[in-house]
Design goal:
mainly alpha, symporter activity, globular, about 425 residues, cell membrane
Length: about 425
């Protein structure tokens, strides 16, 4: 019997993890539709998966970010950081433009009867509060509270200080290297834990989809079909045009299919969890093992992206505001749409990478353009599916930008990982070769 169990386990493990998770996703969705609220019984299994992922976020940021900084001088970190933040700003702006364009073409909300609803809103943070929030009062408390921006800020400052001590005080150089080596061992250990959590992810994804659809009902995904369709179209256009064609095809010069093959685990996990932050361990694993991006790049770009790169949020907010304007019979003029674009881009950058944050941020934009907040309650019914679509977009963008920055800094192994598995290099040129 033991031999049979081991044999079955080996056969199970021989199937790629992404395929096992995909099957779990489909079966979980089907179970939720068929058995309905009875599937709420498996919700704790999904909650456990989310807890395991969230448990890994702060340790992975601390270990990998410090390990990456070890390989960088302050000047080089500035180049990588500047390129990363600049690209995130550009892609988010493009996302907002695409969202408005799609909304103008499809006109979601036209003919929809607004039945009112209670707005679920709260006061958004001011720009000053957001900027001050980058600097934690207590770095240990920031880590304990899951404050990603505060944690990233402190770790970068601490890492740069360590490199400064190593360079300026020769007597401490060996000790500083020992500190970095200890964190490098910690990073490797965390990736071992990530692999174990992802094995459980097959169960977790099944439970998340089964309990989510079972309790919310498939009607949640269809009651406001025009809005869901518009956001899905906007995200698809952004992924295909901006990430695959523009960044992968034109800038990097690789097959978009190869990139998707390397990003698929993170994309599916993001759709299932609705959390860029929670997906970060999977995103980092894809960056290192599949896309072969060096740690000195992805250890900076991905944590920053999980908190500041919200392309999907920009698309979602732009389309949702246009939807709200149509629903209440107050179509927005071009000048108002330009203002929506500006606010959507700025707000999306400050949107936390956790489920439900988009609803809070929607209230900000609606207030700015003078639309009733009651629309938030109307839209909240499809927030789960909109959040899933937007989060998948965000995570894809994180990996796309990391790949571009890695290429610019000779930090991607295009002769390994997904780049060598059945892909054709555009024009027959190996990216990064001069």
């Amino acid at each position: 019997m033991a031999h049979l169990i081991r044999s079955l386990w080996r056969q199970y493990r021989s199937v790629g993890l992404i395929y096992r998770i995909s099957v779990a996703f489909v079966l979980g969705s089907a179970a939720g539709i068929v058995f309905g609220e009875q599937m709420a019984v498996v919700a704790p299994l999904g909650d456990l998966f989310l807890r395991l992922l969230n448990m890994l976020v702060i340790p992975i940021i601390v270990f990998t970010l410090l390990t990456g900084i070890r390989q960088l001088s302050p000047a080089r970190l500035g180049r990588i950081g500047g390129a990363t933040v600049g690209l995130y700003a550009v892609t988010t702006t493009i996302a907002g433009i695409i969202g408005l364009a799609v909304a103008n073409v499809l006109q979601p909300g036209r003919g929809v009867e607004f039945a009112g609803g209670e707005a679920q809103s709260q006061a958004p943070p001011s720009v000053t509060e957001v900027l001050l929030g980058l600097v934690p009062n207590n770095p240990v408390a920031a880590m304990a509270d899951g404050n990603l921006l505060g944690t990233v800020f402190f770790v970068i400052v601490f890492g740069i200080a360590l490199t400064y001590v190593r360079a300026r005080k020769e007597e401490y150089a060996e000790s500083v290297d020992s500190v970095f080596e200890a964190f490098e061992v910690g990073a490797e250990a965390m990736f071992v834990v990530v692999r174990g959590v992802l094995e459980y992810g097959v169960v977790g994804v099944f439970a998340l989809m089964a309990s989510g659809i079972g309790t919310e009902g498939i009607g949640v995904f269809t009651s406001l079909g025009a809005l869901v369709l518009a956001v899905a179209v906007g995200v698809t256009v952004h992924v295909v045009f901006t990430y695959l064609f523009l960044l992968m095809g034109v800038v990097v010069g690789v097959s978009p299919i190869s990139f998707l093959a390397g990003a698929k685990d993170a994309m599916l996990t993001a759709f299932a969890t609705r959390s860029s932050s929670g997906t970060l361990p999977v995103t980092m694993r894809n960056a290192e093992e599949d896309l072969r991006i060096e740690e000195r790049v992805y250890s900076f770009a991905l944590p920053v992206g999980a908190t500041a790169n919200m392309d999907g949020a920009a698309i979602r907010q732009a389309i949702t505001v246009m939807f709200a304007a149509n629903v209440v019979g107050q179509p927005l003029a071009l000048t108002e749409q330009a203002f929506v674009l500006l606010v959507a881009v700025l707000i999306s950058i400050g949107t936390a990478g956790v489920p439900g944050a988009g609803i809070v941020m929607l209230t900000v934009i609606l207030t700015q353009v003078g639309l009733p907040l009651e629309v938030v309650g109307f839209v909240a019914g499809v927030d789960p599916i909109l959040g899933r679509i937007a989060t998948m977009n965000n995570v894809t963008g994180d990996l796309a930008v990391s790949t571009v920055v890695g290429k610019w800094n000779d930090a991607v192994d295009f002769d390994g990982g997904v780049w060598t598995r059945g892909r054709e290099r555009l024009g027959g040129v190996v990216p990064g070769d001069d």
